[in-house]
Amino acid sequence: MHRFVPAIFWVASLFAVTLAASPPGAASLATPGDLSSPDVCQSRETFLFVEAISPDGSRVKLPFTDPDAAFADSQKDTSRGRSYHYSIDGIEAQQILPPAGWIPTVSNEKEAEVFGLEPRPIDPSAAREWDDTVRSLEVQRPGPFCVLAQGNTISYTATSPNWGGGMNVNGTESTDTYFSAHVRFTQPSFVAACPTASRMSIWAGLGGWNTATFGLAQNGTDVDGSTLNGAHFWWEILRGGGIDTHEVTSNAVGVSAGEYVGATTRWDSSQQGFWFYFYNFTRGQSAPGLLVTNTGGGPMSLFYDGSTADYVSESPVNTSTGQYFNLRKPSTATSPPTISFPYALVNGQAIGSYGSWRVNTTSATGGLKQGSWFDGNNAWTNEWYKCV
Q1: 120 CB contacts (<8 Å, ≥6 apart)?
Q2: What's the half-sphere exposure (Cβ side, CA atoms, 13 Å) at 225?
Q3: Residues in Cβ contact with 333 at an 8 Å cutoff, skipping those fewer than 6 apart
Q4: Rounded CA separation 310/152 (Å)
Q5: In order along the chain (388 residues), what is the average pLDDT of each group of 10 residues?
Q6: What CA–CA distance (Å, rounded) separates 82 from 88?
Q7: DSSP string, 234-277
Q8: pLDDT of residue 209
Q9: Fold for the domain defined by 2-40+145-384
């Protein structure tokens, strides 16, 4: 789980930043301290059924009980998309695949959303970026899922032992409602530096402000336990009281160090669920849009209040022990090492359009283990200081 305990600082002035990309492959040999046992699936998905989706949004259930056969059939249909329904450890989820050969255009934005694409942003520059990237990505085949034995935290307090990055927060400097958080970054490479098992997850999400009554939905990348630079996409939904999907890997699209990637968490009020979008811009690929409508812990409205949007790098939690992993050290040409979010949006606009905050990470041994700097528009840079 990605448990949130941030130190919050309102951005009253603009901070100049240098957005440095992480060089691929610049990692030393791993020492035993940073690594842990291989990630093991606690549970996997069960394929339930598939529906054909027409451009107007109407659906027809198809008579397939095997996902491979359903996918093979979809490649012959150029007029309708497909919705693949799964149960993932009690979670109700569906991945939506556009019709074979379908190309989204500005004129069919509503159709694009029906077929599982992230809506085109409102901000003009962000809309152009969407046209150049998201619209042209090759949507991959619906992929398998795996529930892992780690996750993230959400408790909102004055200090954070594991979150660093930025937030838009309702109820402080604004009364806005947040329904979409998007972030892009270069997946870091890492060096061995920590005395015990380390990880770093990077994500965009909604929630974390009021953990007593509402929760957190989030998605992004995480590094594997047993390799220094192995990485995967994941998503998670949780709230106080122990309701938690834990990290669920999304394997339709891969990710490696040095690749430019993106992630979006979006609340859909009409369908009462969370959409998760995953992008690998380096590979020109995206995962099918993933809609989650029930976690087994109740309807999605129990996890969303629109108060907070988040853009975070953190040390996640080992759910087997309840302890935070060490914060894995990035390998960059800068000193201290940095993780950069050169492009982040809230509600389809630059995050600086709303009340914006930066989140620093406190160290258990004193001082900070991660600091955050904001450019006042749509970019963050997190500086890594220590493992723990």
Answers
A1: 106, 109, 112, 127, 130, 131, 348
A2: 16
A3: 20, 23
A4: 13
A5: 40 27 34 74 91 95 94 93 92 92 77 88 82 84 85 51 82 72 95 93 85 82 90 92 87 95 96 95 95 85 88 88 91 89 90 81 88 86 93
A6: 19
A7: EEEEEETTTEE---EEE-SS---TT-EEEEEEEEETTTTEEEEE
A8: 60
A9: Jelly Rolls (2.60.120)
Cα–Cα distances in angstroms (integers) from residue 269 to residues 100, 180, 237, 274, 301, in the given order? 28, 11, 16, 9, 9
Q: CA-to-CA distance for 255 and 242, rounded, in angstroms? A: 30
pLDDT of residue 360: 84
Q: What angle do CA 33, 5, 20 make, to 5 degrees?
A: 65
Query: Is the CB of residue 311 less than 8 Å from the CB of residue 293?
Result: no
Domain positions in the chain: 2-40+145-384, 47-127
How confident is the model at residue 11, as a pLDDT? 34
Q: What is the pLDDT of residue 23?
A: 31
Task: Please check whether residue 367 is in contact with residue 357, taking contact to mean a CB–CB distance below 8 angstroms.
Answer: no
Q: In what order do the strands lie in the sheet with 317-318?
A: 2-3, 150-153, 317-318, 323-324
- Could you tell me how far CA 36 lies from the centroid of its own chain? 23
HSE-up of residue 277 (Cα within 13 Å, Cβ side) = 27
Which residues on neighbouring strands pair with residue 181, listed in sequence order?
A: 265, 346
Query: What pLDDT is attached to residue 213?
Result: 65
The SS3 call for residue 68 is: helix
Q: What per-residue confidence (pLDDT) applies to 297?
A: 74
